[in-house]
Amino acid sequence: MKIFKRGINDKTVYGILMVCFLWYMLHITIKSNVIPGPYETVKRFIALLPGVLSMHLLASFGRIAAAIAVSMLLGVPLGLWIGMNNRGDAIISPIVYILYPLPKIAFLPIFMILLGIEDLSKITLIVTIIIFQILIAVRDGVKEIPKELFYSVSSLGVSGVGIYRHLIMPAVMPKLISGLRISLGISISTLFFAENFATTYGIGYYIMNAWTMVDYLDMFSGILGLSLLGLFLLTALDIVERKLCPWIFL
């Protein structure tokens, strides 16, 4: 808990206050229940959180966490391999360059037909977004390591797994975390879309269901929950970065 609190710094508090100020100004300018005020929304959010809202947030968090885990298990080893192996890079990278720019969200109907309408199709959709970020970040991180460093660690008697532990992974880690940071925002947006199809739990479903019911206060409570979910994930990633890459903060 203390570690997480350190991730919530003054800049985060400043950002929250500024967003709430702009939100309130928009509320009093429009003068419509379409955009409820921050106070009313936070009050409603606190009331909903222990019950229905927490279930939707946990469902969404579970899908993103599973997608990140699968993407890491597949993307990191593959990125290390093509980063260290020029022939592997020549085989894999052209395929990545063709698939990476494609709007993955268009494949959701195909995933739902092949994998079913439950969580597996939605997690797979997010994986297809995150894994390319991870793969490219890891590959580039390996290729940017000067050859002289490999010679240096070899001269010290380090080889095999030791090279990965003491040289490659520390060099790759900052790029890997940056890639995850970028892909998280895209993944949350994609999840919001995916949860509108054949889903009964998920913050995306909750927001759109409140919109169809013309319950704008609940809708904004869901949007607030989605924002806090993103803030939690990014803050957790910042904490991981400080633990695994302390040298970049010196």
Give the DSSP E fraction (strand runs of 2 or more residues): under 5%
* Helical percentage: over 70%
The CATH topology: MetI-like fold
Question: How many beta strands in the DSSP annotation?
Answer: 0
Which CATH C-level class is it? Mainly Alpha
- Give the total of domains: 1
Number of helices: 10
Principal-axis shape equals globular
Provide the residue-averaged pLDDT.
86
CATH superfamily: MetI-like
The radius of gyration is 21 Å
From the 3D coordinates, which CATH architecture would you assign?
A: Orthogonal Bundle
User: Termini, distance in Å?
Assistant: 23 Å
Q: Largest sheet, described in full?
A: none
Which segments are poorly predicted (pLDDT under 50) over 5 or more consecutive residues? none
Membrane topology: Multi-pass membrane protein
Family: Belongs to the binding-protein-dependent transport system permease family.
Subcellular location: Cell membrane
Keywords: Cell membrane, Membrane, Transmembrane, Transmembrane helix, Transport
How would you sum up this structure, described in words?
The chain has one domain: MetI-like fold (Orthogonal Bundle), CATH 1.10.3720.10. Helices cover 81% and strands 0% of the residues. It is built from 10 helices and no strands. It has helices spanning 2-7, 10-30, 38-84, 86-99, 108-115, 119-143, 147-155, 161-194, 203-212, 216-244. It starts with a helix and ends in a 6-residue tail after the last helix. The mean pLDDT is 86. Its main location: membrane. It is a multi-pass membrane protein.
